[in-house]
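ENTRY TYPE: protein
CONTENTS: sequence, structure tokens:
***
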Amino acid sequence: MKLKAIILTVGLALYSGVFAQEKISSQTLIGFADILTDHKDLNAETMLPVPEWPEEMKVAGDLRHWEQVVFQGNELVGVVWLSMPGTLKLEDYPFDQMVLVLEGSVTLEPMEGDVRTFKKGDVFFMPKGFDGIWDMKEQYKELILVEKQAWAAMTSAE
């Protein structure tokens, strides 16, 4: 429930701030390779800061994080997320997402299943309902693609 509240806060800030400022439309064409090779200007100084994680989710590390919407289409929202090193405990992740790792690596340790590490250039799916550990040993940056309705539901929830 706390994760949903954070995503709600982040989503509201993104929708009210970034979408109003950026000229992103359903006609904007963005290649994954473009973002993978040219994301240096998406950093802590240029991206929107995200509220701190709740204490019960923090396992270790700095965990300051930022986001920037890079695409808003008719069906999908694309967001670049940047985090300082750290470890989170996730419970009942609120939506499915596709992830392209832009920088660093992340190790996912599901409560049930195999531990997997993803590094720069890797693409993976984060399933709705995921329970487990999200571990970033170094600064980590990713591009996520989320169904627009799922993202909007998070921004309109309590």
User: Anything to note?
Assistant: The domain at 2-156 is CATH 2.60.120.10 (Jelly Rolls). The chain has three helices and eleven strands. Residues 1-26 have pLDDT under 50 and may be disordered. Helices lie at 2-21, 32-37, 148-156.
